[in-house]
Write a structure and sequence with these properties.
Two copies of one chain form a homodimer. Chain A is 41% helix and 13% strand. Chain A is an alpha/beta fold. In chain A, helix 7 links the parallel strand 6 and strand 7.
Chain lengths: 422, 422
């Protein structure tokens, strides 16, 4: 029965039963963590051979290009090609860097702050960014760190609300937008072709409006029928808008989170602006790790094939969690959750006004969730409803215990709230 | 005989002879490069085993800390310890990052521009840096990129002119200084204990005055009796000035230039400021490469022992060049050069007013020198005299050909200049 139809008496009985269950959970002394989109050790194992992909033997002969030495600021040719094929762009429009696409995004926003993106430095000016919500806390942190004002744009089933975006970009101080266009963090939504094309067609008042297209989950499908994301650069070309988007991706969730390879794709003009900063910034990135990846995965197809191994580990975990949510909460009508076709998160919405309480209850019983609110700019979820579940890291038994507790806390918080209101 | 005592007739005869020699050099079609401090392939070979130092076997068992995954923003413990021992500081005051100390310096200056170093952002204000000259062009490029005004501080035998530094720092807009304190690029000078202590004792008007202590050649000696550099942090403690210096180093010229590990050491306050930026900037640096280095070199002593292999390759090259300079130019009194005890460069001073011409003559005969002037801010050598020789990269026979040509061009340019003045 839907919880809202429960009588006060029945709510009180249920509260008592749930409280007892909660207390016994607490006594079990769990230490579980479903907070971060961090691959599990079983996922790292399937890439372990990467560590043997290159060896001293690779450099026992003289090479024309010695990847151990200085040079090749934009990355090694083979690796630029691999990412170009993955992103379906020209290799001349790709730069391959180090192990962190977040770092590349941070560096790009930093460059905009100090040197601008074609219309003067952003520092010292009122700068606003559009942030599809719920979204990725690390994106919000970069904005907050630089004092960039964030504007919430609600996510729908086809991506962010483009009507709203079209309105906001009339304001010249709106300089950019962060997006995770495929298997969006945390909603799991992939932007529809129509959304991508409408975004590509935007005519912002700011000439230096820049979209950070964080394609982190580009090939992170849970089945053969993964979502299709329309190529943003194909769309941009239709509108002569190629300078508006910088696309980022990485192998952090393909090879190793801490020792992968990250890349960006951008228009010729943007590549040149980024390259000229990199010329001053660094002697170049680790080309041996780039080469290691190319030798192990060979090419973009190799990367795609490799993802079948991750899928086999992740898909059952996601199903186990959503099945449990259905089993434990399905009949009460107090929560909803995503069933994504890929990516790293289940988007979980509890009864408005109870998410922080659910977080507290979980934490006190030994289960760490992503900080409740973190999926919104400034950590403020206006409905206090959104919780991000990251099922990848814990082993299945731990994940199930954490999910059981989460369901219990979700129901308990809802029951108590309804009781308070009666 | 010193060239200045040559008669006009003898100068003309010499000019004719040298011109003929130069033309035949040109016909040989050399393509030689002594421009960059880049290790040769023989040097890379002695670290080639680094590529086998870790393998899939390292991660076949479950680890408490999995260096393949996210985490450990400040670097892995063993590697922080290795650099702490190398720099003779506490590991808590060390951060180990990626493959480029230049990138770390760039990021630090960027941080000062946007967030400041304790007294507000530097952006938009008149900022000046002191630059010991001749110095490292990449340091100057960072300043120039950010519009930081550079002030030349002449280098002497004990380091930069500290009297001059003491005077300039009375100006509150003087916010920092770049130094290569050991085997300085390009002079080869190591700052004396007295210089280090006087620098440590500085009382700048700017509260946020910061010295970039680029200890790039910390263990890069050519003999057992390498130069000793007094520990800057020991000196800073004497004056309660620990926040004034950020020290950088790397294994770029110990392991691989493109795939080494870089680190910084700083006061607790500075570490905290840098860490809080890194928290926003990145998911962490490549810990597997850090671990690879620790497994291969074991510890700071291992790094030091390894440098004996580099020394065996580099010392003879340096000696061959300085011997040739002596043989070809010693009697003319028109040029002088350093005989460093370590590092990567020979500092070569030609007759004032002829360095650019020497560079042009060399280039046209197929030998690339470091851009003449690049050893000074804005590329302007006020005496047009300084040339940086980087002997490490070419094989010995090529290096000797390049040196012969350099001597010839140096003499030819001097002869022509004297003739013009007669």
């Amino acid at each position: 029965m839907l919880l809202k139809y429960y009588s006060k008496e029945n709510l009180m009985l249920l509260e008592k039963k749930l409280s007892t269950e909660y207390e016994s959970f607490k006594k079990m002394g769990f230490k579980l963590d479903i907070s971060r989109g961090k691959p599990g050790s079983d996922q790292l194992a399937v890439s372990n051979g990467l560590l043997d992909a290159i060896s001293s033997a690779d450099w026992e002969q003289q090479h024309l290009l010695d990847y151990r030495n200085y040079g090749l600021l934009m990355g090694i040719k083979e690796c630029r090609q691999m990412f170009a094929d993955l992103l379906d762009v020209n290799p001349d429009n790709v730069i391959v860097c180090g192990n962190s696409s977040l770092n590349m995004m941070f560096d790009y926003i930093t460059q905009c702050m100090l040197s601008g993106a074609g219309d003067g430095p952003w520092f010292g000016r009122k700068i606003k960014f559009l942030c599809p919500v719920p979204g990725y806390d690390r994106h919000f942190s970069i904005c907050q760190y630089y004092g960039i004002e964030m504007i919430n744009i609600p996510m729908g089933k086809e991506g962010p609300d483009v009507d709203m975006i079209e309105e906001y970009i009339q304001d010249e101080s709106v300089k950019g937008m962060f997006c995770v266009p495929k298997y969006s963090n945390p909603t799991g939504v992939t932007f529809s072709e129509d959304t991508v094309k409408r975004i590509a067609a935007l005519k912002p008042a700011a000439k230096d409006f820049r979209i950070i297209w964080d394609n982190a989950y580009i090939i992170h499908d849970f089945s053969d029928r993964g979502d299709n994301l329309y190529n943003i650069f194909d769309a941009l070309k239709l509108y002569g808008n190629e300078d508006m988007v910088i696309e980022f991706t990485s192998t952090s969730k393909i090879s190793f989170p801490g020792a992968g390879v990250a890349a960006l794709a951008a228009s010729t003009k943007n590549i040149e602006m980024i390259r000229s900063r990199m010329t001053i910034q660094t002697i170049g990135y680790d080309k041996l790790n780039q080469y290691r990846h190319v030798k192990f995965y060979r090419n973009a197809n190799g990367l795609k094939k490799h993802m079948i191994l991750h899928r086999a580990i992740l898909a059952p975990k996601f199903k186990a969690v959503t099945d449990k949510l259905e089993e434990k909460l399905g009949s009460y009508g107090i929560a909803s959750w995503s069933k994504p076709n890929g990516g790293y998160f289940i988007n979980f919405n509890v009864m408005p006004g109870t998410a922080k309480e659910v977080g507290r209850l979980c934490r006190e019983a030994g289960v760490v969730l992503t900080d409740v609110g973190a999926t919104f700019p400034y950590g403020i979820d206006p409905n206090d409803s959104n919780i991000r579940i990251a099922p990848s890291y814990p082993p299945v038994d731990e994940l199930m215990n954490a999910t059981r507790l989460l369901c219990l806390c979700t129901l308990l918080a809802a029951v108590r709230k309804l009781l308070n209101e009666k």
